[in-house]
């Protein structure tokens, strides 16, 4: 998962090397003065039949 703030370059937040099945919470350091956030998800595996991202929530 990548995050970019105010249209800046994407920064890697989390990368997975194996199957994950569960709820996760990630803390993100927000640069001072930022007013917008963009999240990106990228899949590069070979078994896309089970690739799912669900119920993403952003909270202060």
The profile of the biggest β sheet is: 3 strands, antiparallel
Order of helices and strands: EEE
Separation of termini? Answer: 18 Å
- Please give the share of residues in helix: under 10%
Strand segment tally: 3
Uncertain regions: pLDDT < 50 for 5+ in a row? none
Percentage of residues in DSSP E strands: 15-25%
Radius of gyration: 13 Å
Please give the count of helices.
0
**Principal-axes shape call:** elongated
Number of domains: 1
Q: What is the average of the pLDDT values?
A: 86
* Spatial ordering of strands, largest sheet: 2-1-3
Structural class, please? mainly beta
Q: What does this molecule look like?
A:
The structure is a single chain. The chain is mainly β. It has one domain. It is 0% helix and 17% strand. The chain is built from no helices and three strands. The chain has strands at residues 2-5, 11-12, 37-40. The protein has a three-stranded antiparallel β-sheet, with no helix packed on it. A hairpin with a 5-residue loop joins β1 (2-5) and β2 (11-12). It is elongated and about 40 Å long.
How would the blueprint of this fold be written?
Elements: E1 2-5, E2 11-12, E3 37-40
Antiparallel strand pairs: 1-2, 1-3
Brief overview:
By secondary structure, the protein is an all-beta fold. It has no helices and three strands.
Question: Which keywords apply here?
Answer:
17% strand; elongated; mainly beta; three-stranded antiparallel β-sheet
